[in-house]
What does this fold into?
Amino acid sequence: MSEILTLPVLPLRDTVIFPGVTMPIGAGRPGTLKAIQAVSAADEKLVFAVSQRENLEKVSPERLHTIGAVARVGQLQRVTGGVQFLLQGEYRGIALRISESSGGYLEAVVRRAEEMSPTDPSDAAFVALQREVRQRAAELGQKAGFPEEVVKQVIQSAEDPGRLADLVSAYLEISHQERQTLLETLSVEERLRQVLIQVQRQIGVLDAQEDIKSKVQQELGDRQREMVLREQLKAIQEELGELDDSDAGLKELHEQLAKLELPEEGRKEVDRELDRLGRMNRESMEYQVIRTYLETFAELPWNTRSDDDLELKRAEEVLDQDHYGLHDVKDRIMEFLAVRQLQTRRNDESKASREVEAAEPKSDVEPDVEPDVEDVKTLETDSTELETDSTEKVDLPVVAEEAGSKGPILLFIGPPGVGKTSIAKSIARAMGREYVRISLGGARDEADIRGHRRTYVGAMPGRVLKGMKQAGTKNPVFLLDEVDKLGVSYQGDPASALLEVLDPAQNDSFVDHYLGVPFDLSEVLFITTANFIQNIPGPLLDRMEVVEFTGYTEREKLEIAKRYLLPRQVSANALEEDEISVTDEAILEVISHYTREAGVRQLEREMGRLARKVARRVAIGEVESMEVEPDAAREILGRPKIHPEAKSIEDQTGVATGMFYTPAGGDIMFVEVSIMRGKGELILTGQLGDVMKESARAAWSYARSHAAQLGIPEDIFEGVDAHIHCPAGAIPKDGPSAGVTMATAMVSALSGRAARHDLAMTGEITLSGRVLPIGGVKEKVLGAVRAGIETIVLPSENVADLDDLPQDVRDRLEVIGVEELGEVLGQAIRGGSFEDGRLLFSDQDSDRASQRSDQLQH
It folds into this structure.
């Protein structure tokens, strides 16, 4: 039976002691120091060295492994904070019990662990296993850098297989847990196998490290050699004057960048990147990235400007030559040019004045009599005041010049085809500036405006800087088309990125992500276009000056077709001017029955169809020339595509004529009301929106609450239903401006009185009968005029909007301004009048009211 000993416990952190191995140990914990002190007093100087399960400062019996090593303490030396000593493992031990001793340290009852020797030590497999472990261990020692003689001596000294396994285990770079597993493996053969596996793994790791190291050194050596050779080649080529194209291009880039008048921040960035470029291998990807960046820098117009042509008369001629109508837009452009002309004139005058003052000689005559002290003070004071006044007079034009350099931001709002994009090009031509256009329709990435950072592969500047590079000048006319169609995605909101571009107070230091330095956009004349103002974010809209484009009248479309569209299509279809002529009546026929739009795009397409049909007849020799009359236009273009509404031919009960607005222009709409027996419900049909439904309910409530004034029997509402219908049921309709029309049709149906067929109306109503203003008056009135109606009822506040109409249209109209619904009914209902705040009917009596009630009940 094995000997059982009671020994002090030496707890080890992240360390395992193997039998036959000596290791230096440092101890500083109080319990450990007491255990060492107890061992020093004993004769055998043995301890039970066992590893901790966890790396903790405070040790308890349950936190220690069961199997450790009985070791001998030697060469004890006291140091600051504890002791150092050598610990030599003797044999494996199993702790039967670990407890706290009276001396303040842990004490263990230890029994020697018997190792399991192989059944046949001379077995060929076991002998081969021992040899393999010795050879592989020697190989590992040599790869780790130990002297070959020392490795062989140490391995040969371990003749016992178990001691060999323990010795190799002590020097393996393995984890603490793997060491403990080897210590607890009592089978010698199994321990040798596990050690061999760990040795082979260590050899594989060292081989891989060596291979990586050699490859890196080879690659670095090749690169360094290539760099030296390239520098030598460059020096030889410079001596011979045979620089390649890339060197010549780089030299040219240096010269371009040196000529640029860059801001301080831009100059620092260029110098830094040039320095990096000079120290970089030309074949590397980073070299190409930096060179592309510097080329972009050199191509931007940092100080290149085009001279403004501020001749107002010529500018007005250019605008009138390119576009017909659009008087408001042209007036705004002429105002801008006039302001620029005055600023330039004032600045030139101020500059000339300063030059004259600087050129005047100063008097060198000294006074004969010395002035009094008081006189000197007075003169000093006066000169100070004069100096102050002079400074103010000189500085004012400078401030004006700086303020005037900031261009306005114009927003052209209007339906498609009215000339928003084309007039921007005419503005550039009138001002003598370069013209740049970018379309923002569908842009969903913030990088479209600000560009990508250079850290991304394939980075490039945003559309704004690309446009500036395309213009080549610092003050172009820059058109941002379709700004209301910007999208939003996870990549950012491009509308938010435009806030800095379109803010005159900020865009003098616009920073593109790719460029990384401020670029001045304050001299650019930005023009934006949009179809719907409600689709533009509020902060962006606040930075722009809105200029509205309304639809063209038929007379304006006729002039545009004659002056621009027809000549352009005649030329585009290879016709001569004398081979085709189109009468005004034929053009009006095309406008009214083949197009439905606020602009002229469809009209130009139809003019193109006419020209192509005539070109075909001329080509086959059918005709030599052709004059297109209305009948001929119908024959060429086929059956009409558009069937515009026309006014009714007679008055009807329960039918009123309203006006509505669409982006394609205005038109009239009939509101029909039918009264029938029922439960007092209101039925609405015709794809009405929420706002129109509310207007219908307001009209129904107004009729019920004012029944007595309107000649409607009050008991009629209890047994009837009202059905309101707006024809063209396939088309959705919405808006508040049909309120007065619905109320008129409702009162007409309930009272049995006919509504006028030759009168159209528009306006919003309230429950009390007030008539509120609406929008789109010009388009609505033109639609009514096209339908043959010449009597218009408008809210009083909208009468001033008729100034936008052509004079010939205004002369034909009878416009009635109203403020309350009674005035509308007095005009729209036959036999009605509105006097002294009361609605009166010529046939209003009790017999008629009772007759209408009987009709509805029976």
DSSP finds 28 helices and 28 strands in the chain. The mean pLDDT is 83.
